[in-house]
Specification:
lipid metabolism, mainly alpha, hydrolase, SGNH_hydro_sf, secreted, GDSL, single chain, 2 strands, 130 residues
Length: 130
Amino acid sequence: MARTSPCLSLFFLFCFLSLCTSSDSAAFRRKQRVPAMFVFGDSIVDNGNNVYVDPNITTIYLPYGVDFPTGPTGRFTNGRNPTDILGQLLGLPRFLPAAKDPKAKGKRILYGVNYASGGSGVLDSTGGKS
C-alpha cells in the first residue's frame, strides 16, 4: 500500500485553506459543498462521544470548552475541533452531533454524525487499561 508523504498532505491542506481564505471566501462558505459529513477518529475530532461511553473519561468541565459557543461539550479542546472548522468551510449548517448522544436522530443527523471517540484506535490494545 502506498503511503502519502506528510509534506504532500500538508501541501494539499494548505492549498485548501488558501482557497477558503481567498477574497471570495465568504461566498465559498455560504454555499453548502457536501450534503453530509461522517467523522471517524480519536480525541482530535471527538465531539463528546466519550461522555456517553465512559463517564470516567469526560471533558465536560472547564477549561475544556471555554472558547466553544455552548461551553464544555466533551470535546478534547477548549473550542472547536478540526471537523467543526471543516464543516463550517464546507457550508454545513451546524455542529455535527455525537453518535452516542441519545438526541442524535431524525433531523439532527441529516448533515452527518461524528463517531470519533478519544482513545480509539485500530488495535485491540489501543486505549485499553493494562
